Queue: 4 jobs
Job 1
Amino acid sequence: MDERLQFVARRLAGEPMAELCREVGISRKTGYKIFDRYQECGVQGLTDRSRGPYRYVYKLPFQVENYILNIKREHTSWGARKIRERLMRRFSGIKIPAKSTIHAVLDRYGLVERRARQRRRAQGTALSLGKNPNELWCTDYKGEFLLGNRQYCYPLTVTDHASIENTTILITGANRGIAPGTRRRSTQTRSTESLCRHSRPMATL
């Protein structure tokens, strides 16, 4: 405020507005604004003003907001939808607030019960252990290794769970970056050959 008062005093002393604003480091628009406030309100016009709005366009009337709170306290299980229906019957001459606005009023006064979210955990299907041969086959990729012909081999093991009989399916590719689709087709082909030799299992893991 002291700087603004000095600014006004120098302006009243006859200093040009442009030079005065340039020296202080403000625009001429701001300079005229400060000077006009002084002329309208005196020294009080040089104090800092609130940056909040002068009025709230969407602020509910006090009677409506108080009625919402009273209904909620009387019917604790009611939500915004039911309260809005009651408002429509009670106040016919005003614009009824939306459900979201009513919910915001209830939340502001701590009348909304927040429920903890329950995360759904995925539950897998329980697997039955194979007791007899060909009931359950277990398959597993064992990584990769380079062959002597500079091709990579991707060993896929197929084990019968009951008899522990092991069948290894070797899948080779032209290079390390073998396409997943090509590897999948090779796996299907070799698996079909294995099924032809050992018959089809009841389940595969």
Note: The chain has three domains: 2-46, 62-108, 136-204.
Job 2
Amino acid sequence: MLRKIYKLFHAIRVTGIIAVLTVIITLGTVQIVLRYFSPAQLRPFPWGDEIMRLLNIWMVFLAASLGAKENTHLSMDFLIKKLFKPERVELVKRGATVIVIVALGLIIYHGTLRTIANTRAMLQNISISISWFYAAIPVGCAYLLFDYLLILIYGEHPFSRKKESGEEITDEDIPEFLKENTPEGVK
């Protein structure tokens, strides 16, 4: 049952990320064409740049939960392993996860209040409420909260690519252009 629910949430998240990225790329391309390659009477949309910037908020908050799912968020594993005895490392990680969950709960609460408070505030160049973009914060954090709760309960994300395939994520999964810029000795 949990797998089905998670697959639905994941499909919505990925579809949202793809849709937002498609709009950003399409709108950006149209803006460039209208700005530099069109006759003088055609101008870029006055609201285009603003919409693209605000859609990036959705992109960041939706994609952040994918990072949590695959355990690719910034972590202090090296520092934790240096400072704590091996038998304490898992306890420290779980404690940090609890702190993250509490912080996400607070962000969801205050983000929802801010979104509701700004329902009548409109964007400057187009008649769209700014709350549509503020909503990315509580929605994205709710996805993060769900993923971190699964990590807290199961010790690691039960639906991560590593868990689903039974394989570790290796250097082969990292694109070549990122490997080339990695300093020596960093894994």
Note: The chain has one domain: 2-166.
Job 3
Amino acid sequence: MTAHPFLLEAADLPSPWSGRFYDQIGSTSDEALAKVQAGEIDAPTLFLTDEQTAGRGRGRSAGSWTSTAGNLAVSFAHFPTAPVRDWPVLSYVAGLVLARALEEDCGFPASQIRLKWPNDVFVAGGKVAGLLLETATAPSGQQALVLGMGLNIEAAPTLDRSDYVARDLRALGYGGSARGLVVKLIHRWAEAVHRFDLTSSAGHQHIFRDWQAQALYLNEEISVRLDQETRIEGQFIGLDETTGALKLRMKNGELRSVMAGDVMLAETS
């Protein structure tokens, strides 16, 4: 744990966050979850690595989530004071944080930045980032939230799916400092979770509205894989403003809400 990816130091991190840095690790999220469960951390801590060899994502394409040096592979562990029932909303908050960083810190036009439900970020039609929200319980009984975040800065992996490709920020035209971008992104997330803890559940509607405004496939016909055997199709008409569920208008006119699944464009005949 002697590495300092992106040359980050403790002074770069916002208070009260601390950091654990690695040359190479299987999964930053697995490491964060294990440290919480072992009672080794009790304050906001990020886990950052140069290379990740066995990360995990969601959806049918989420097998091994590797990340090479130069790309961002980080997991944030903290102990929100907001009610646990509200924590899933932070997945949408994280998407918005990334979208804002891509626009304001990287200079990509907002019109090129899209959020794919529930946890991917696209620029110019290609996936540049993925998110994974998990929870863990410390020996004291205190619950922690762990956000895994991967961002393709220097290189893009080959994805095991045919409906879209991965892109990296360099190929898309970002010529700025990777270190500067990572530091700003860390500060953005720390600020966002602090603000979230101060917001009541009633204030989450604007989060879902802001996320929906940048949604990929909005008003298009999509296919949602619910599990290995079940797939449904319908028009993606937006998010439920109370839960963040994906809302589908089925071909028979029925409205259906989906809380989890893998989304892709419906095949056209």
Note: Residues 59-63 have pLDDT under 50 and may be disordered.
Job 4
Amino acid sequence: MANHIVHEGMILNSIKGEHMQVIAVFGGAFNPPLNSHFEFAKEIADKYENIEKIIFMPVSSRYNKQGLISDEHRYNMLKLVCDKNPKLLVSRIEIDSESQPYTIETLKQIKAEYPEHEVWFIIGSDNLKLLPKWSEAEKLISEFKIIVLQRDNDKIDEIIMQDKLLNAHKDSFLKMNDVGAACYAARVA
């Protein structure tokens, strides 16, 4: 992956000095989709101007999670909101797959669909803790930038520093601390 620098909310290719267009993939169960998911997407798009699209990627019912609402219902709920914002899309890649693909497989498929774009992946800090155990974790971390959303007062830097694999690729992570604070405050009030 080329070296990158952050400049005024954009990632620039430090070799060419050009503005890189990005497709960000927001994976999850979305069981159900919450307003906070869309607020997070808006905050990410506002912070990184070079994100052209954020693609919501709901897992299929074959994913190992109890009590998932039907694939079609979760997809349609996401689509209702995404259709109102030109920067948001929802994908059927994982829903329509015959088996639940690994994240790296999904991201490679998105990259094939958008060859002129860099592909980033959005996860919560809760999943960052588990990331080293994912299939082909090192390849995923080295090939894709990962936006990490802070959850439950997790300290993202500490999570990265305490894991050998994550720390070795610490430049692959873009940290969103205190993301969605207004959303959480509104729910508590």
Note: Residues 1-5, 12-17, 182-189 have pLDDT under 50 and may be disordered.
